[in-house]
Structures are given as structure tokens and as C-alpha cells.
Amino acid sequence: MAITIQKVDGSDQKTIAILRYLQKECLPADVMLSASQGYWWIAYTDKNIPIGFAGLTRSNSWFDCGYLCRAGVIWEYQGKGIQKRLIRVREAQARKLKWNWLISDTYQNPASANSLISCGFKLFEPTSPWAFKTSLYWRKRLVCRTKTKKYVRQKTNNMQKNTTKKTKPA
Ligand SMILES: CC(C)(COP(=O)(O)OP(=O)(O)OC[C@H]1O[C@@H](n2cnc3c(N)ncnc32)[C@H](O)[C@@H]1OP(=O)(O)O)[C@@H](O)C(=O)NCCC(=O)NCCS
């Protein structure tokens, strides 16, 4: 079954209703998050049925950092890599915004933690933990593509200079 991930407008009434439904289905015990802030995505089946969602906001603590604020996949569709796709679209958005870091937290949630690990996140200990006492905190450093290209160009130039110096007959 083909699943598509669509970026959605968090101020659109129909989208708000779908996000509310998905949050209720996936995280019935959690306080509902408003979609009025940040960036949101919905995963749809080929029959246009919404089956997953995810949000990304700017971190409250760090200016150049995005926070994977919430995600969920309806249980029938879990284990098919949808959360990993939802992480990747958020990472792509964060890179577009030139943010340097992504962070998240998990609480007693091995599936969520493992999908973060698969997408390259590492555990860290924030100086001011913001979630529960036993929450795990995750971060990933993002290097902007343009920075990488510039960095590689500089490195190559330096290496060529160094090689020239080293091989130059005395
Ligand atoms: C957490 C959640 C979003 C994961 O969605 P998903 O689409 O099933 O995740 P993926 O298939 O992309 O990846 C899940 C990973 O966890 C692993 N996993 C799944 N269930 C697991 C379990 N019970 N214990 C350990 N690992 C588990 C999978 O093998 C996979 O690992 P991999 O990347 O090494 O292959 C989904 O379980 C969910 O919606 N849960 C309820 C809502 C929730 O907890 N949201 C997150 C907090 S906001």
C-alpha cells in the first residue's frame, strides 16, 4: 500500500480536525497539541485515509534548533516505517530553515526511541530537562548542505595547497 506524506496547513479547519482525530487515536491520554504553531504533516493511504501525523516546532531553548514535538501512527499501520518517514520530512524542513539541530524526547516508548536511533539521533543529557523524570532526550546535529559543499571545497583546496607544498622540491 502506498502511503504519502503531505505537509499541511495548521491553520486550515479541516486539517485541524484531522490532526485532532489522529492525536486522539494515537495518544488518547496526552493533552492535545495545537497545530497553530510550527509545521505539520499527515500520512495518507492511497484511499486518502489519514493514518499518521507529525509536528515540528522551533525549540524554546535554542534558536537554531527544531523540536520533534509530536507524532503518531494508527496502530494498524505501525511497524511499516511511517514514523521514520515522518522524522525524515521534518529533518528536511529543519535543514531548509537552516536549523543546526533537531531534538526530541521519549517516555517509555521503545518504538519511538528506535525510530529516532534509525534516523541518526543520539541520546543526550540536557542541562535543563523539560519532560518527565525518566524521559530520554535525543538530538541530531544537522549540517546544512551549502555549508558542507563550502567545507568540502575549502578542505580540498587546503589539501591541494598542502600537497603542493609537501611535494615541492626544496
Ligand atoms: C511511536 C510510533 C509513532 C512509531 O511509529 P511506526 O511507524 O510504527 O515506527 P517505524 O515503523 O518507523 O519504526 C519503529 C521502530 O521501532 C521498532 N519497534 C516497534 N515496536 C517496538 C517495540 N515494542 N519495542 C522496541 N522496538 C520497537 C521497529 O522495529 C522500528 O525500528 P527500526 O527503525 O530499527 O526498524 C507509533 O508506535 C505510535 O504512533 N505510537 C503511539 C503514539 C506515540 O507514542 N507517539 C510518539 C510520542 S509523541
Could you walk me through the main structural features you see in this protein, from its secondary elements to its overall organization?
With 170 residues, this protein is an alpha+beta fold. It has one domain: Aminopeptidase (3-Layer(aba) Sandwich). 36% of the residues lie in helices and 25% in strands. It has four helices and seven strands. The protein has a seven-stranded mixed sheet, sandwiched between helices. β4 (65-73), α2 (82-96) and β5 form a beta-alpha-beta unit. It is globular and about 55 Å long. Residues 26-27, 70-73, 78-84, 109-112, 114-115, 118 line the site of coenzyme A. Coenzyme A (COA) binds next to β4, α2 and α3.
Enumerate the strands of the largest sheet in spatial order, edge to edge or round the barrel: 1-2-3-4-5-7-6
Q: And the CATH topology? A: Aminopeptidase
Structural class: alpha+beta
Q: Give the averaged pLDDT, no decimals.
A: 90
CATH class: Alpha Beta
**Helix and strand run:** EHEEEHEHEEH
- Name the poorly predicted regions: 162-170
Shape assignment: globular
Counted beta strands: 7
The portion of residues assigned to helices is 25-40%
Query: Radius of gyration from the CA trace?
Result: 20 Å
Look at the structure and name the CATH superfamily.
Answer: Gcn5-related N-acetyltransferase (GNAT)
The main β sheet shows up as:
7 strands, mixed
Count of helical regions: 4
Terminus-to-terminus distance: 67 Å
**What percentage of the residues does DSSP assign to strands (E)?**
25-35%
Detail the topology: elements first, then pairings.
Elements: E1 4-8, H1 13-26, E2 39-44, E3 50-58, E4 65-73, H2 82-96, E5 101-106, H3 110-118, E6 122-123, E7 136-141, H4 145-167
Parallel strand pairs: 4-5
Antiparallel strand pairs: 1-2, 2-3, 3-4, 5-7, 6-7
The chain binds coenzyme A.
